[in-house]
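Saturday, quiet lab. Running sequence design on the structure tokens for the scaffold JK sent over.
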């Protein structure tokens, strides 16, 4: 293993500064909430307005498919972001890397909010949109892994999953904020106002949120686990090469374990929102309200699942959640096409509750799979590679599948993703007692 000793702290006996539990929980939660707010703002806009604004020269179906393709671009960028930010996170530190990822995500999101549409600048509009989506993906690719490490490397013994739960809560709150804001706009603006300028407001608000997140993160001290690794000269020059030469198997298994989380979430939110409004005839306001209701169940499941995984282990909780997710795919067609808002709400609540169950333990599991010198790169890579399979093209393929065989085929996609994750979890070792 190639090591580096460029860091100026060579005193192995010096105790690194310690972050308070409250500061760690707040910083890991706020950062991921803001970054996922940025990401979900685009996901919601893709389902509602991106097609007509940036691809108006095509049919309605082609507009939707094009919008979903731009949505998927960010997932292709996320593994690159995990390699880039993981490199610096494992080389120079968790804190500064997390600040950079948050800043990149916020800048790209804000710029989407001021990007002219196709009617103003022609083909440059979708081209620039794709570039900004790529930038969003790079930023988010470095966010989650660093936030999970921030939480778990500062966690008290026996409570890693509980502390790892705080960055896992961020997506729930970010989604609720994004959808809640779009719901408010849909209820107060006309269709013409919403399509003309109203959809841009959530993107522009990102600038203020990022300032708050940067303030919180700049107050942090470096992770004590990383500081000790630096003092022992354990850093490697190229963490990504070390990862894929020595730790490729846990990376792939961790990625496969993540697939069900992505499939549950993006099928039940992005695809279902688009399908519910365009095909089932629900208004934007109604379906956004149903999603806001359902995501509360994800937020409730997250701390419960984290507590159970600290008590019983990561694998038992993930296996139970995965098996239930397999069955949930069979509920999609009967509940979504029931003609009842109660049936739709029940399906969304089930899927997002199971998302919380399977997602929460990942905040501890993925960092526990890797040693300190490649932990940022490894946890980020596993998390984001899973997104390519489970999320990048999920809304796009779901749109194709529903045209080929109906909603039951889309439900089968969810079940198949869950089967893959269950197999991966069975192949992983239990990590609850692993020392970081």
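Result came back. Writing it out in full:
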């Amino acid at each position: 293993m190639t090591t580096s000793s460029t860091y100026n702290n060579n005193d192995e006996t010096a105790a690194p500064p310690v972050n308070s539990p409250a500061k760690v929980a707040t910083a890991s939660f706020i950062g991921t909430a803001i970054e996922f707010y940025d990401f979900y703002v685009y996901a919601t806009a893709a389902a509602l307005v991106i097609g007509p604004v940036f691809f108006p020269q095509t049919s309605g179906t082609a507009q939707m498919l094009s919008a979903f393709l731009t949505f998927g671009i960010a997932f292709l960028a996320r593994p690159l972001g995990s390699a880039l930010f993981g490199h610096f996170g494992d080389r120079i530190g968790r804190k500064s890397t997390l600040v950079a990822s948050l800043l990149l995500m916020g800048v790209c999101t804000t710029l989407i909010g001021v990007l002219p549409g196709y009617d103003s600048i022609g083909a440059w509009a979708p081209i620039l949109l794709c570039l900004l989506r790529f930038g969003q993906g790079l930023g988010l690719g470095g966010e989650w892994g660093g936030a999970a490490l921030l939480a778990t490397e500062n966690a008290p013994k026996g409570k890693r999953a509980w502390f790892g739960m705080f960055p896992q809560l961020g997506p729930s709150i970010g989604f609720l904020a994004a959808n809640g804001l779009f719901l408010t706009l849909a209820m107060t603006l006309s269709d013409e106002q919403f399509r003309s300028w109203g959809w841009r407001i959530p993107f522009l608000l990102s600038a203020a949120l990022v300032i708050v997140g940067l303030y919180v993160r700049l107050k942090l001290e470096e992770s004590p686990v990383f500081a000790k690794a630096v003092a022992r000269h354990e850093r490697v020059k190229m963490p990504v090469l070390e990862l894929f030469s020595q730790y490729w198997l846990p990376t792939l298994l961790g990625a496969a374990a993540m697939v069900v989380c992505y499939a549950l979430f993006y099928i039940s939110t992005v695809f279902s929102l688009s399908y519910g409004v365009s095909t089932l005839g629900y208004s934007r306001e109604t379906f956004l309200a149903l999603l806001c209701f359902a995501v509360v169940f994800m937020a409730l499941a997250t701390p419960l699942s984290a507590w159970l995984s600290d008590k019983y282990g990561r694998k038992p909780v993930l296996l139970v959640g995965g098996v239930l997710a397999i069955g949930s795919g069979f509920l999609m067609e009967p509940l979504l096409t029931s003609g009842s808002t109660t049936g739709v709400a029940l399906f969304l609540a089930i899927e997002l509750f199971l998302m919380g169950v399977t997602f929460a333990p990942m905040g501890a599991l993925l960092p526990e799979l890797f040693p300190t010198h490649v932990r940022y790169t490894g946890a980020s890579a596993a998390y984001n590679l899973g997104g390519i399979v489970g999320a990048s093209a999920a809304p796009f393929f779901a749109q194709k599948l529903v045209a080929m065989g109906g909603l039951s085929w889309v439900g089968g996609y969810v079940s198949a993703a869950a089967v893959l994750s269950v197999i991966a979890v069975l192949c992983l070792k239990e990590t609850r007692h692993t020392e970081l």
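Notes for JK: The chain has one domain: 20-427. The first strand starts at residue 3 and ends at 4. Ask whether to fix the surface positions before the next round.
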